[in-house]
Amino acid sequence: MPTDPLSTTFAALADPTRRAILARLASGECSVTELAEPFDMSMPAVSKHLRVLERAGLITRRRDAQWRWCRIEAAPLKEVADWAEHYRQLWEGRLDRLDVYLQELQAKERNHGGGQHGK
Questions:
Q1: Strand runs (DSSP E) across 5-65, as ranges?
Q2: Which SUPFAM superfamilies does the UniProt entry name for this protein (predicted)?
Q3: CA angle 80, 81, 85 (to 5 degrees)
Q4: What percent of the chain has pLDDT over 70?
Q5: In angstroms, rounded to a whole number, what is the distance separating the alpha carbons of residues 54 and 47?
């Protein structure tokens, strides 16, 4: 089982059902019953997904009389976004350098008679 917070978050996000639950919670707090409605699964299965999300710090749960409410927590998602941003910047830099290189090749081809094919 992953032990660092980022690995735990990624493991929780790996499941499409859990991502769908988070997408629903992005619009606001709702009850476990409301969260379970769109899924063709038992309440214990939904509860298992919620436990995974809660252990990853992606949601918090509270109880109000007989109702159980869930709310999304943004901090772990920000950590994922920050981690991905580092790699986005890395790849953008590499793609920018590739673009410059390709433009240089095209300029050389134009300057050295690249348009004379077929003569």
A1: 30-31, 59-64
A2: Winged helix' DNA-binding domain
A3: 120
A4: 92
A5: 10
